Amino acid sequence: MQEWVNKQHHPCRKWLNFQHHSTSRILLTGLSAFFFLSSYIPLIKLDFWWIRIFDYPRFQKLIIHLLLIGGWWLFGDDRTENLIWTSLLGIGSIYLFFQVWPYTFLGKRMIDRVPYDPQKGIHLMIGNVYQYNRKFEKALNLIRQRDPDFIFLVETDQAWADAMEPLHDTYPNRILVPLENTYGLVLYSKLTIVKQSINHLIDEDIPSLELDVRLRSGQIITIYAIHPTPPVPNENPTSTDRDAEILIVGKKSKANPKPSLVIGDLNDVAWSYTTSLFLKVSETADPRRGRGFYNTFHAKIPLFRWPLDHVFLSRHFGLSSLKVLPGIGSDHFPIELKATLTANDTTDTEEATPEEEVEARAKIIKGHENQKADQD
Q: Which domain of life does this protein belong to (predicted)?
């Protein structure tokens, strides 16, 4: 027994215990400082990818804040230091909670639920298939199972366009823009396409779609289908192009007197400043508000999931259903929505202030200037 006691008080043992404690404290302090600052980095209104990337994992940062608070209570031994860090992390937790709570059941719904009417409604499915995914049959089986009126798939190369040919009999109206640069688009519709255009709103290599569709009731609606570039260092070091394209479509939707939807992989999360500005500029509604995150990315990494694929509705629609569908081998889950035209306005949209309108125009102008500079 005496020998064991002596070992515990051996100078080497004390030094090792000190080193272990010191390392844990340094690690806890470093993580706390990093994640506390990461909560507020998105407030910096600069377009650099290393700033905008912090928009995405806000719920994950909230969970990490709470875990770090627990870490300080369990492993911190300096009362003053514990109080400082738990207070800072507590403030950060409250801030992050209020950032994400509108996208939980606690938030206020922007759009009311209404019964689905196949005559006055549209049943659509959208998904990023991941260009190098070759599980074509999984996608076909899911489409046949869900049987939507309207399908919009992105990251579709020629192999994907060829693999989807079995849909041609069921979906006689199609727009196929297969590309090898991960920005190909394919669209299939049972409903009549009255008018269509393939646009390149910012980048000549990045297409988007604008089309008028006739519902079974005869009503014409407009669908804007987009897939702007993400802010990542190996593709686009800023979010300028993405933000500009999203806001251009938002202005188009607001100016359009017809009922409209904006759909696609926006490469932006629902709670980012750009998406919030888009909602105000377009005066559309986000069906996620008051219902849940409906995370669509990353399908293969459960701890890193957030809502990247979207459907926004003009005030003419009520929401009938919204679902994230099973995976098809992609890094995104497909998402499905049923919406129905309503006689009364069932949405609670937001309006942009004059200052926000000016900011949106400035972002659009900057996007055009960036592309002109790249071309020169």
A: Bacteria
Edge-first strand order for the sheet with 185-189 is: 173-177, 185-189, 150-154, 121-128, 335-341, 317-324
> How many Å apart are CA 125 and CA 326, to the nearest integer?
12
DSSP state at residue 54: G
Question: Would you call 10 helix, strand, or coil by DSSP?
Answer: coil
- Cα gap 338→322, rounded to integer Å: 7
Separation CA 293–CA 305 (nearest Å):
9
Q: How is residue 300 written in tokens? A: 């293969």
The DSSP symbol for 324 reads E
At residue 199, φ and ψ (nearest 5 deg) are: -110, 155
> What DSSP string runs through 17-51?
HHHHHHHHHHHHHHHHHHHHHHHHGGGS---BHHH
pLDDT digits (tens, 9 = 90+) for 265-295: 999 999 999 999 999 999 999 999 999 999 9
Report d(CA 100, CA 242) in Å as an integer: 22
Q: Which domains does the chain have, with CATH numbers?
A: 2-103 (no CATH), 121-375 (3.60.10.10)
The whole-angstrom separation of Cα 270 and Cα 103 is 8
pLDDT in tens, 184-204: 999 999 999 999 999 999 999
Q: State the pLDDT at residue 16.
A: 39
